[in-house]
Design brief:
By secondary structure, the chain is α/β, with parallel strands linked by helices. The protein contains nine helices and 17 strands.
Length: 312
Amino acid sequence: MRIVFMGTPDYALFSLKALVQAGENIVGVVTQPDKPKGRGYELCPPPVKVFALEQGLPVYQPQTLRNGAFDEELQQLAPDLIVVVAYGKLLPKSVLELPRYGCINVHGSLLPEYRGAAPMQRAIIDGKTETGVTTMQMAEGMDTGDMLVTVRVPIGENDNFEDIHDRLGVAGADALTETLKRLRDGTLTATVQDESLATYAAKIEKADCLLDFSVCAKALHDRIRGLSPFPLSFTRTPDGKMLKVVESRVSQKSAPVDAKPGTVLALSDTITVACGEGTALELLRVLPEGKGRMSAADYIRGRRLQLGDILG
């Protein structure tokens, strides 16, 4: 098959590398345009572009796919199949209908749960104990296409976004390989998504990162690990400085009944903070404003917090 691959970030690399290792006929790689990064705003290529060029694959970076802007180039590539993994743009009908076998997407959730931009983070934030990857036949809606192959992946109680990202990347490559095998064997079957079970995983915004200590420690722990190592959840110290939290754990000890949520209860190797429902959370690693990531113990040694201080 003539395959066009469309993807942009590190997550897409797992699937692209699997296609290359399997010797698939990749006739083109479509990825997002280079973006400025860092203090110098130098243009940086997306990870998919870097790998594709290393493999000698032709790379295309259209600004838009709308209004047939990229249709002519795609028609010249004449793909039998388009594989899409975290490309970052919606595909118009003209692209979806171009290949003989349509477009297959590798989505990081157990559809129809967590359609949308941030399925991995949202699953962790919501305290799920299981997630997975679904390949689907793409349709015009947001992750609404028929499901093809599903791979389930457990979420440990302390797994963060990076852990699940890498685990789902591997699972996604496996699901894609199995999907293509069944497609060739003529055994690939499609299952319509149950709309009544559909949920939406919205893009992570700054408001999602703010820690509200009035909720229970477990919910805060889930939010912290769902947003770590990037973009990181945060609170504010009494002097108004932002304090981002890299790692945490639920304390085995309860908070005093009269402790206001956000109150610093203990300072040892960790920062213990009172939370809602009489629970407490231990901050293990933090990122103070204007500083680098450090252990809570190192932060405490800087004497930036005192017992009784209130965060938030």
